[in-house]
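Design request, tokens follow.
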């Protein structure tokens, strides 16, 4: 299995939106109640137009997308969304390890957040991220280089 990344293509926008919906539906329903497709479309659309996204590929097949920002004080994993059909294959781990490597080279932390009810938090904790804050809706995590 080969995991790779490339710039997200505008022609794939609908695929990214559907991946967002598939990946977030369970956590959204646990945390906020019934799924509202129109509201989720608006959330996705608003986030898609901010920053530059990358496609996540598994053996050449579109498996998700991410947005990782290199900022002065940290590396921020803004979005990491993996289609449920491709979860547990190491795709998220690969993105996070790349972020950790880049942050480690600069001596800065990696930061990210997730819904309180998102099981992705288990992955973050396995990779050494520590929860440092919480909002009404999100858990915020940080990883510091050794």
């Amino acid at each position: 299995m080969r995991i790779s990344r490339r710039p997200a293509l505008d022609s794939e926008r609908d695929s990214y939106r559907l991946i967002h919906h598939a990946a977030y539906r369970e956590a959204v329903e646990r945390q906020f109640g019934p799924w509202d497709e129109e509201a989720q479309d608006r959330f996705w659309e608003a986030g898609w137009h901010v920053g530059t996204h990358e496609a996540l590929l598994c053996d050449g097949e579109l498996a998700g997308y991410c947005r990782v920002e290199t900022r002065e004080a940290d590396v921020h994993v803004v979005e990491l969304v993996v289609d449920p059909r491709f979860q547990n294959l190491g795709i998220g781990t690969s993105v996070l390890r790349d972020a950790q490597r880049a942050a480690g080279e600069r001596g800065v932390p990696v930061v990210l957040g997730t819904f309180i009810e998102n099981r992705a938090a288990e992955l973050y904790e396995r990779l050494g991220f520590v929860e440092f804050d919480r909002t009404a809706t999100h858990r915020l995590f940080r990883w510091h280089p050794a």
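Comment from the thread starter after seeing the answer: thanks! The chain has one domain: 3-143.
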